[in-house]
Design brief:
Structural class: mainly alpha
Strand order of the largest sheet: 1-2
InterPro entries: ARM-type_fold, Neurochondrin
Protein name: Neurochondrin
Family: Belongs to the neurochondrin family.
Organism: Colobus angolensis palliatus
Strand content: under 5%
Radius of gyration: 36 Å
Shape: elongated
Helix content: over 70%
GO biological process, one term: neuron projection development
């Protein structure tokens, strides 16, 4: 309690006779006036912090909750007694009781939370000692409740977060205690706090940001440590960007010791994680600030990781990783980048050195450290670098590849631990609680883009094959594919799942082209082919998943050409369903579109294909080529294509549009399919002739098709 009082006797000296006399009077009180007088005497005799548990319990047994409850809710005070005096006495008693953790969690205390919260923002004389004492006691009660296992939840539900925000923003007596309690509640239950009191918390964030921008003394370093806790789990309000960036620029642009600089780097990393580069202004000042951030981060990473035996400040280095990721994103951005070309060149150079330090560190990691969150964070930044740059540090990367495959395999086989590691990495430096969507929970997904680039190169590809990466990737693909299969709600899946599947397909496409022997001999690719065949028919019917369907169809067609002797491809229901779906994907890409002022239509992209054709066209042309190659290898395929009416409809489409509207590469792709179908099956040739195939071939100068159809 905050009331003035005489100290209680030490327990070893026996009971306090004065307190005993007052407690006796309290027990013998016959009416409210006598009880009130006795309570005043009790509160003057003890301080909550100066009495032991037994004495506190004896006071509670003598007082109970009934009379304090009446004191807190009474609306009529005795003549000459200010109404807040009664409430102050009730709060003082609760503060005494709350010193006992068991009593702090008592329902009779918890149901007072809404009342106590209102006291924090009640108006009154700021110099009134009784009011100040009541406010101190109120904070003591609420802090004690917050320290119980379920206390934060009760405080949030009772409106305490909003009350604390208003008390802090009002800068009245005890506002510093409001901030301290807010910090504790946000650390314990960030999501719930923001859900219940977002407008008030944003107001505090705006206030702290303004203070941070204006601070000229040591308080700016304290605010650096506080601000990450008050950044919302989703998006930081744009109105805070200027103040936060300006405050950080002033700090990081000065010569500082590490204890001053590190909190600023961690705050910048938190902002980068939440907002990307949106919080950094465009123009010269913004580009210089971003370059400064990335340079400082790279220096910190090198200092921490290059020296063997140096204790690594993992939270700081992880924050620097986030700033390096921001640098990688901006250096690879073609449009509206904050950086100028010379700055990009300089930053790529310093980031290359920092990534070299990361590789050096990972080469030292033993099996006993593989499950540590900092290792996961280090693999993550390396994956971000390899996704964009594999030509530099090639020797070092090849040296590290065996470790990366083993590491990814370990976490894949212990997927739950991988998710937990992602949580721990986020806790390490980026977010006070849960990780954001850019922190996927498995190491393999982080490495997929880099491995996609590396499988094109002979040396790295041979290492990946030797270490068993293809088999691991097949298992991973099949596991991730299960998440998208019927029975699972794909609407709640993060985009990273589908992106990961597409990247796996790209890796497999590279292996099909560069290591066909591997596809033929490794049993995992037979399982993969079976999954592709059974999955594509449903996939091509789903809205919004055309790009994934294109990857699956093209990969399946290329693999079918290599695995054409497999029993699974000999006209089985699964193989027929797959090729029917592949034909659907290939045949629906273009339509005839009328043009104003012209009698003849033009060949145009279908609406569904048009928006993503830049990402789709290479797969489509490759798919057409692969289908063409499958026709002579699978005798049943040409009759199946004829039954689908694809060759007839294709000739009909070409006959209905202006030849000038069909690009040469399209003519070549269409002719390749039509020629192979005509060569493989007499009925196909006859159907094409009936569809004016020879005339169409002549119009489009398809000499090979024209010759094929002229033969019996």
């Amino acid at each position: 309690m905050a009331s003035d009082c005489e100290p209680a006797l030490n327990q070893a000296e026996g009971r306090n006779p004065t307190l005993e006399r007052y407690l006796g009077a309290l027990r013998e009180a016959k009416n409210d006036s006598e009880q009130f007088a006795a309570l005043l005497l009790v509160t003057k005799a003890v301080k909550a912090g100066d009495i032991d548990v037994k004495t506190r319990r004896r006071i509670f047994d003598a007082v109970g909750f009934t009379f304090p409850n009446r004191l807190l809710t009474t609306k009529e005070a005795p003549d000459g007694c200010p109404d807040h005096v009664l409430r102050a006495l009730g709060v003082a008693l609760l503060a005494c009781f709350c010193s006992d953790p068991e009593l702090a969690a008592h329902p009779q205390v918890l149901n007072k939370i809404p009342i106590l919260s209102t006291f924090l923002t009640a108006r009154g004389d700021p110099d009134d000692a009784a009011r100040r004492s009541m406010i101190d006691d109120t904070y003591q009660c609420l802090t004690a409740v917050a320290g119980t296992p379920r206390g934060p939840r009760h405080l949030i539900a009772g409106g305490t977060v909003s009350a604390l925000c208003q008390a802090y923003l009002g800068h009245g007596y005890g506002f510093d205690q409001a901030l301290a309690l807010l910090v504790g509640l946000l650390a314990a239950a960030e999501t719930q706090c923001w859900k219940e009191a977002e407008p008030d918390l944003l107001a505090v964030l705006r206030g702290l940001s303004e203070d941070f921008q204006k601070a000229e003394d040591a308080s700016k370093f304290e605010l650096c440590q506080l601000l990450p806790l008050f950044l919302p789990p989703t998006t930081v309000p744009p109105e805070c960007y200027r103040d936060l960036q300006a405050g950080l620029a002033r700090i990081l642009g000065s010569k500082l010791s590490s204890w001053q600089r590190n909190p600023a780097l961690k705050l910048a990393a938190r902002l980068a994680h939440a907002c990307g580069s949106d919080w950094i202004p465009a123009g010269s000042s913004g580009s210089k600030f971003l370059a400064l951030l990335v340079n400082l981060a790279c220096v910190e990473v090198r200092l921490a990781l290059e020296e063997t035996g140096t204790e690594v400040k993992e939270d700081v280095v992880t924050a620097c990783y986030a700033l390096m990721e921001l640098g990688i994103q901006e250096c690879t951005r073609c449009e509206q980048s904050l950086l100028k070309e010379p700055q990009k060149v300089q930053l790529v150079s310093v980031m290359k050195e920092a990534i070299g330090a990361v590789i050096h560190y990972l080469l030292q990691v033993g099996s006993e450290k593989q499950k540590e969150p900092f290792v996961f964070a280090s693999v993550r930044i390396l994956g971000a670098w390899l996704a964009e740059e594999t030509s530099s540090l090639r020797k070092e990367v090849c040296q590290l590849l065996p470790f990366l495959v083993r590491y990814a395999k370990t976490l894949y086989e212990e997927a739950e631990e991988a998710n937990d590691l992602s949580q721990q990495v986020a806790n390490l430096a980026i977010s006070p609680t849960t990780p954001g969507p850019t922190w996927p929970g498995d190491a393999l997904r982080l490495l997929l883009p880099g491995w996609c680039h590396l499988t094109v190169e002979d040396g790295p590809r041979e290492i990946l094959i030797k270490e068993g990466a293809p088999s691991l990737l097949c298992k991973y693909f099949l596991q991730q594919w299960e998440l998208t299969s019927p029975g699972h709600d794909t609407s709640v899946l993060p985009d990273s799942v589908e992106i990961g599947l597409q990247t796996c397909c790209h890796i497999f496409l590279n292996l099909v082209v560069t290591a066909p022997g591997l596809i033929k001999r490794d049993a995992c690719f037979t399982s993969l082919m079976n999954t592709l065949m059974t999955s594509l028919p449903a996939l091509v019917q789903q809205q919004g998943r055309l790009l994934l369907a294109a990857n699956v169809a093209t990969l399946g067609l290329l693999m079918a050409r290599l695995l054409s002797t497999s029993p699974a491809l000999q006209g089985t229901p699964a193989s027929r369903g797959f090729f029917a779906a592949a034909i659907l994907f290939l045949s629906q890409s273009h339509v005839a579109r009328a043009t104003p002022g012209s009698d003849q239509a033009v060949l145009a992209l279908s609406p569904e294909y048009e928006g993503i054709w830049a990402d789709l066209q290479e797969l489509w042309f490759l798919g057409m080529q692969a289908f063409t190659g499958c026709v002579p290898l699978l005798p049943w395929l040409a009759p199946a294509a004829l039954r689908s009416r694809w060759p007839q409809e294709l000739l009909q489409l070409l006959g209905s549009v202006s030849p000038n509207s069909v690009k040469p590469e399209m003519v070549a792709a269409y002719q390749g399919v039509l020629v192979e179908l005509a060569r493989a099956n007499r009925l196909c040739r006859e159907a094409m002739r009936l569809q004016a195939g020879e005339e169409t071939a002549s119009h489009y100068r398809m000499a090979a098709l024209e010759q094929c159809l002229s033969e019996p």
